Write the structure tokens for this entry.
Amino acid sequence: MSNDLVGTLMDAGMSPQDVRELLGPAYATDHDPGAPVEPEVHQLLAVDSSAPLPKVVVDVLEAARDERQPPGPQVVVPAGVTNSLPQSKDAKPIRVDTEESYRRFRNGRPDMHALDRPENSENVPDALNDLAQNEAGLVDDFDVRGAASQWISGLGRKGGQCGPDQACLLCGVPGAASAVCAGCARRATVLGLFERGAASQMYGSIPSTRGSHRVHALGNDDPFYRLQHQLEEAVVGSDDFYRLQYQLEEVLGADAPEFYRLQHQLDESAVLGDDDFYRLQRTNEERATLVGNDEFYRMAWQTEESAALLGMYTLARTDEERATMLGAAMYSLSRFMDEAAALMSPSDASAETIPLSFEQPDAEEHVATWKQGDNLYASMRVVGWDGCPRILTTTTPYHKEVGAVVGYATRAGVSPSAMLGVLDPLARTLGVSSLVPRLAASAPAVLHEVHGKVAPLVMATLPVTGHRVGCR
Amino acid sequence: MLRGAAAMSAVLERARLRSPLDGVSDDAWSRFVDALTVDDDSGLRQGMPRPFNARTHAGGLGCFGLLPRRLVDVGVAKAVRVIGGKTIAVGLRRDFLSPLVQRDALVDSMRRYDAELAKVTLPSEISRSGALALYHRLGPEALAKWQKHRQRSTIALFQRANGLF
């Protein structure tokens, strides 16, 4: 990260001396090899020790600390292809037991949509029932309270149930005073709309590259298979097979598209060059607003996450404060671009499936999660505006999730050996389980906004803060 | 293939630090690793595990306090440079702060030291784990240095690690 920031500043015309003065000696180490600067290793790993601690992480780490695991076979993380979502002619609509879901919804989670619905309406039970179905099946179970919580069910926690405090819809951290916690409300979700899971899979389907990428390509990359797969899905019927989209809309209520607003669509040229493979969308305007104050265009880095930082930059009184604010804003921009590049750049790295648990047995037909290279991915199959299948995909850096688990373990006082034992599987599962709710929550708005446009598209969404979504 | 909760449960239940050394159990290896992570320097964290971004007084980096020259040996750093009497690593891997990278570096280092141990006869009061801890703290000439090198932090490390295997 440090060199990315240094490179960005130097590309902007700053001299190495200016960069060193602005950011401190640690950031200029690699760019000024003549200077005998000791590497500041602690600058390179961001461990967010102030983040709320998910209970499931505490439980898992405590179990790892307290119980010495007996010897057993070597850990083998399931490896293989996953990005091609499982296809089945017998796939059924996602459903759950409505009575059970209703009871769990009423007992376990405050009704966050109650204010939006008339209390005396005859449709209230049905509406709550619908909400219960979708929340329990699409959001509540496959987040951090999902797979890992099953493993620690013996510790007294049951998957799908919430405590007295409401859990954040996106990250699952309990104690949120609103549907989305303050941290998630500030964080933009970068996602792509593809025919396959990510751009790397499309590149893998090019016949000329199949020879070198066949081993690593995700799923069946045969164009005929893709066509057949689409035909099969069309024959099965969109009403039943692609009900996911509508259920997703129900998750967030009738005004679902407004829950998330489309921030912008990235320009392909910003990352990969002038390729008409991607759309050019307001790039210049968005860049201009980085330093300007145009509120018309909403960008990921213009949200609370970075706009506030830039605003604080203008109010900073000392050079040190300004350097800190600028560095944080640049980090936000860099993270956004890194995630967009991870979605759009071709990759020949092998993929490893990361299994998640779903309350609804058919949910896994629509969701895939995997690790490829240095990133974690999650894909969800939805119905496009033209009735054809589309794949919504988002990503997060693997090292970021590792850092989060390290932070949790440090706060929980877990020994390094115990933490190292569960670090990799925990980071994978927690990482992708945080991506899936974001996909589900942003899907309705994305599909609404991209009407008439041809995939692939890369865009960013941000939870709308309003009367239903507040900050602590 | 297991999916969902069953797969996660299977992974987590088997997840633990595995011993890279022949004849050393996973449990003993875990205790040895924990012994290496304790901060023996005088400071606020004395007696506690080091963070993964730590730097010891002796110049060791990371949670395990790997010495710069050893980092070069295992390919994590490109070279060492002596500045102001201190040896620092140059060209450190950018992802060295990842716990998994540090774990792999430690495993590589210990495997090499363990291979060297097979060529020497250890004194009766020094076990295999104790010798590895001394190698880890003092370098390849650890056994010779140990006769006259009696720093408090090194003694504490030796006492924790000796006899584990």
Observations:
- Chain B is about 45% helix and 5% strand.
- The CA atoms of residues 37 and 78 of chain B lie 24 Å apart.
